[in-house]
Amino acid sequence: TLRFVFFIFLPIVIxxxxxxxxxxxxxxxxxxxxxxxxxxxxxxxxxxxxxLTNKNLINILWNGVFRRDCVRINYNDIExxxxxxxxxxxxxxxxxxxxxxxxxxxxxxxxxxxAKVTYAQARIITMKKDKEEENSVLEMSxxxxxxxxxxxxxxxKEEEKREFKKxxxxx
Length: 171
Known about the structure:
Layout: H1 2-17, H2 21-47, E1 49-52, E2 56-62, E3 68-74, E4 78-84, H3 88-93, E5 95-102, E6 108-115, H4 117-170
Antiparallel strand pairs: 1-2, 2-3, 4-5, 5-6
């Protein structure tokens, strides 16, 4: 907000009090710089995104015109999800910061000034629980399959022993 006041509002006020053409040129350059930085801040906000998939949470951060950072977070690695809403206007419009803390990183992945952060927090937690249930079902089915194979192998060995004993008895 300080950039807005200094680079956009201030040149208009200065030109209002000093309406000279050289002041206009200088203030238009300052105003142009202010609008450019405002556009940059908007693009930085607009291009930062969390993408929820059925397998991972993807955090894409726009760090300048030619640099993007992409972080893929496995749902099993998520330790906590926090939604921070500070201030009266942010509470009314449900804007805030969403922080995802992972087990294998010391840094938190933050999405700044996101809309509906409480809904996003609940959705990430739901996806994490669904993935944990899916993994436990897969682990259970793998365990059942391995147990079934073991029992079949064990019962076939027992039958071989019985047949061997029958052959010994007949001899």
